[in-house]
Amino acid sequence: MEKSASPKPCLSNLLFFPAGCLLRTPALAVLVCLAIGLLGGTYLYYEVNVDLFGIGRPDFNDLHFNSNYTRVQSDNGTRWVFVYEKTPPSVFSGLVRHVSPIRLGMDPFLTHDILVTTGDFANPEMVSTRVFNHHFSWSTHNKSAPGGTINLIHAVPLNEAIYDQLLQIRNGQQAVFTGYEILRIDAYQKTGEYIGKWEDSGCNSMLVTSVQVQK
After folding, report:
1. Is residue 90 a contact partner of residue 180, using CB atoms and an 8 Å limit?
2. How far, in Å, are 136, 139, 153 from residue 201 at the CA level?
3. What is the pLDDT of residues 108-120, one digit of tens each?
């Protein structure tokens, strides 16, 4: 009687063998699922322009702006003082190449990073862009400097309606953002003790008063 040949080990079987062993144990399977869920939730919370059913939405009822939007007071006593760069409103119009939420506990009114580009900067075949930790960078293989503009907006929505409009912004849209540029935001505790400041470097912190998406 002939003996049947033993099947050769398959590379995919070897790769997935440890995971298969883990998933055969209910407790370990639950831990793996929890870890995957935690990683996925973290990515959604910090990288995707959603408010996660309200979890990531600022508490607008707790943030009280004065009439000229130079001061914000929270119910717990924390207050912020806004220093603006200039009086006339600024307008940034172009192709959105990045949008992500800002999650800063000390400055809850800062809600979005939005990269707005024109000219060569709006062409991904000519210029590569990257946004990380509220800073942007770009690179190109062309010898000549790219033409156009590139601006990273750190958005402070004027109100909850503007915030909801910002939630609808997606990469690849042509959009117009209007508002007042912010030079610095100083934060103080209820006791008056200075906590710290928000001040961008080479970007455009802005109180956004209008959002228009061009179809």
Report:
1. yes
2. 10, 19, 11
3. 999 999 999 999 9
Together in a domain, 32 and 105: no
Cα separation, 181 vs 58, in Å, equals: 21
Q: Which DSSP state fits 20?
A: H
Number of folded domains in the chain? Answer: 2
* CA angle in degrees (0–180, nearest 5) for 205-206-211: 135
- In the structure encoding, which two tokens stand for residue 31, read together? 């831990």
Q: Report which of residues 124 and 16 the model is more confident about.
A: 124
147 and 41 in one domain?
Answer: no
Q: Are residues 37 and 72 in the same domain?
A: no
- pLDDT in the model for residue 55: 84
**What residue numbers bound the domain in which 29 lies?**
11-47
Please tell me the pTM assigned to this model. Answer: 0.81
Residue pLDDT, tens place only, 56-89: 899 999 999 999 999 999 999 999 999 999 878 9
Q: Burial, 117: exposed, middle or buried (Cβ in 10 Å; 0-12, 13-18, 19+)?
A: buried
